Amino acid sequence: MAPLEPWEKVIVDLDAFSQTTHGKQSCTDCHGGVQSPEKDAAHEGLIASPSSMPEKYCAECHQEQVATYPTALHSTQQGYWTAINARSVPENHPALEGMFNNHCATCHTTCGECHVSQPKNVGGGLFTGHVFEKTPPMTRSCTACHGSRVGNEFLGKNEGFPGDVHFREGRMNCVKCHDGADLHGSTSDAMSADANRYVGMEEPKCVDCHPTAAPGGDSNPMHQSHGNLLSCQVCHSITYTSCDGCHVAISEKSGKPFFETQATYSTFLIGRNPIQTEERPYLYVPVRHVPVDPDSYKYYGDNLLPNFNALPTWVYATPHNIQKNTPQNASCAVCHGSDGTIFLTADKVKAEELEANQSVIVNTLPPALESIASAPAMPASHLEHVSNSCTACHATGIRNAPVFPENHAAYQDVNCSGCHKLQQ
Amino acid sequence: MNSKLLSILIVTAFLLFACGTRQTTAIPSPIETEMPVETEAVAEVQPEADECVACHTDQQRLIDTAKPEEAAESESKGVG
């Protein structure tokens, strides 16, 4: 996005603006200042961003949104703190708060930074002569901030990889899926310490628009056999961006905050779901490396993330480059009986990050199709078993149950019925 | 007799004329129905905003009065 000239940022299109509801008010109603032909005098007491005080300037007409927005992640930025808190300890918080205010807090978004101007974080400037946009313009608002990963993936800016089909074919913008109700927060949103964008209901959810892709919904054998074992993105997203080793500091030269990312690279890796919940029951999801490092905040103090291993560095990802046909859904053999190229196996994780990523690393590759076909069926009588734990009997041989072979050791109970279908 | 008949005709003609005139004045004129629109337009004028608008709609004036912006050379490296 090209930066705007200073005059472009503040020029008002009176013809357009005066036709709108907001344009019926006088400038000073919202922006303060005084009537004067002299700039300095006119700007005395100027409120450049009235919506930074939404209760005062927005609530009279937008009561519902103002009531819930304080709980929204764009306002709280709780996602950052959820991760920072998990990896740090309370005594490190003062130093980390200083770091956060210098490097992260600029991503906080006001009402106006989505609806009337570009976010301050990318230089600001009115969108369209001060006309308020109910739907934020995608590239000047949403992907202006969410650009390096989501924006580039969605718009097809990663060389060699097409943009998301919803954009290429459907010309959909962000709010088609991420609607106002999601972005404005809700009174039921938890202000809890573990909030982030993947906590709670899965919203948006692919099957809301593609209901037949849900288990039992259509005749596609891939949808039916994988059900909720795989997130949709496992089969329908393509190569996306990962980053390593972001470090932040204050410049000695300019006194301004800056960051440095050690590496950025393209990956597509399937890992185990580290945040498996009822809402996100998938066993496998695409995982993206986030640029955190034990020394990311070293400028602000030593060992500020003593619990670095509490969270994986390869995280649950929802790449925004959905395609109907992808390399991995071209054939069953890409996953079943493969050499593990597209799985996050331990050899692809840095030695110093192995402990942090135990919940994500794939230890056992999906069996080959022939193995599945030849696996003994589960007796129909097993339907009546009180215990749903296969290993309770088949690990020990209790009640004459056949003990599973050594190469099954890494499988978990939940995997058994994937190969051992219930006898009809 | 003729004068009596003449008087009745004159009175009748007067009454008919009077009734006709009343009916005409009872129809609202198009000018009267447009009045509220004119009033509303006057209420929208915001003379207080003139100085702000005068400057912020004038590209050259904004260029002339803009505070010079330092070329913000980012010291950050890599993808943010």
Topology:
The complex is a heterodimer of chains A (424) and B (80).
Chain A: H1 6-10, H2 14-17, H3 27-31, H4 39-42, H5 54-57, H6 63-68, H7 73-76, H8 78-87, H9 93-103, H10 112-115, H11 142-145, H12 147-155, H13 165-168, H14 180-183, H15 206-209, H16 221-226, H17 232-236, E1 240-250, E2 257-267, E3 270-272, E4 284-289, E5 314-316, H18 369-374, H19 391-394, H20 416-419
Chain B: H1 2-26, H2 30-44, H3 50-56, H4 59-65
Give a short summary of the structure.
Chain A has helices spanning 6-10, 14-17, 27-31, 39-42, 54-57, 63-68, 73-76, 78-87, 93-103, 112-115, 142-145, 147-155, 165-168, 180-183, 206-209, 221-226, 232-236, 369-374, 391-394, 416-419; strands spanning 240-250, 257-267, 270-272, 284-289, 314-316. Chain A is of the alpha+beta class and 424 residues long.
Structure in words:
The complex is a heterodimer of chains A (424) and B (80). Chain A has helices at residues 6-10, 14-17, 27-31, 39-42, 54-57, 63-68, 73-76, 78-87, 93-103, 112-115, 142-145, 147-155, 165-168, 180-183, 206-209, 221-226, 232-236, 369-374, 391-394, 416-419; strands at 240-250, 257-267, 270-272, 284-289, 314-316. By secondary structure, chain A is an alpha+beta fold. In chain A, the strands form 2 sheets. Chain A has a 3-stranded antiparallel β-sheet. Chain A has a two-stranded antiparallel sheet with strand order 1-2. Chain A is elongated. Chain A starts with 5 loop residues before the first helix and ends in a 5-residue tail after the last helix. With 80 residues, chain B is mostly helical. Chain B contains 4 helices and no strands. Chain B has helices at residues 2-26, 30-44, 50-56, 59-65. Chain B is rod-shaped and about 115 Å long. The A-B interface holds A 5-7, 10-14, 24-28, 31, 33, 35-37, 39, 42, 148-149, 241, 243, 246, 251, 253-254, 256, 258-264 and B 44, 46, 48-57, 59, 62-63, 65-67, 69, 74-80.
